[in-house]
Design goal:
heterodimer; A: 11 strands; B: mainly beta; seven-stranded mixed β-sheet; four-stranded antiparallel β-sheet; 11 strands
Chain lengths: ~110, ~110
């Protein structure tokens, strides 16, 4: 079945720096890749997603890139701010099913210090 | 639109008991998925319901079950609770019709003693 690996598990950056989180997936049939941000004690929040027919997507300071050949996708956060500190999860939709079931990476704890 | 809601927010149960958790999706959404979140295993897919039918199931034992009602509200039940069932149980709402975006509820924190 589908497997998602996420790196790094922790990431510390200075305010204003960029942060990059990388994920790889195992099943080439996956076609939807969302990213979630989870602050302490809160629900996971969908921040950006990408479909397999697109190579890159941007939304203000965040962007996601997808390399289907290598089966990996990355989250890029530019000009980081303290409020970006949270756990970030990547996910891939389980392929060949009619529903929306997701397989998640283990998460990256991002700490932005001012 | 109101977001996804879950009740109760916190539960403490004893081993061997059973528990029922409830999830109300975003108005108009017909798909509800359930996930278990633990520090060790992360977010794991339990099952998905769409139009009152289970559409997908993860790799959890039969003690974990669910259902969906005609108004799209969903419940999940865990029978014969074990200590390892202690976790945050999250449900996610999706339109379920060609759109994959899922929006999570606040979760139910279950503690089994």
């Amino acid at each position: 079945g589908e497997n998602v690996e996420q790196h790094p598990s922790t990431l510390s950056v200075q305010e204003g720096d960029s942060a990059v989180i990388k994920c790889t997936y195992s099943d080439s049939a996956s076609n939807y890749f969302p990213w979630y941000k989870q602050e302490l004690g809160k629900r996971p929040q969908l921040i950006i997603d990408i479909r397999s027919n697109v190579g890159e997507k941007k939304d203000q300071r965040i962007a996601v890139t997808l390399n289907k050949t290598a089966k990996h996708f990355s989250l890029h956060i530019t000009e980081t701010q303290p409020e970006d500190s949270a756990v970030y999860f990547c996910a891939a939709i389980i392929p060949n099913q009619a529903g929306t079931a997701l397989i998640f990476g283990k998460g990256t704890t991002l700490s932005v210090s001012s | 639109k109101a977001g996804v809601t879950q009740t109760p927010r916190y539960l403490i149960k004893t081993r061997g008991q059973q528990v029922t958790l409830s999830c109300s999706p975003i108005s108009g959404h017909r798909s509800v998925s359930w996930y278990q979140q633990t520090p060790g295993q992360g977010l794991q897919f339990l099952f998905e319901y769409f139009s009152e039918t289970q559409r997908n199931k993860g790799n959890f034992p039969g003690r974990f079950s669910g259902r969906q009602f005609s108004n799209s509200r969903s419940e999940m039940n865990v029978s014969t609770l074990e200590l390892g069932d202690s976790a945050l149980y999250l449900c996610a709402s999706s339109s379920g019709q060609g759109a994959n975006e899922q929006y999570f509820g606040p979760g139910t924190r279950l503690t089994v003693t």
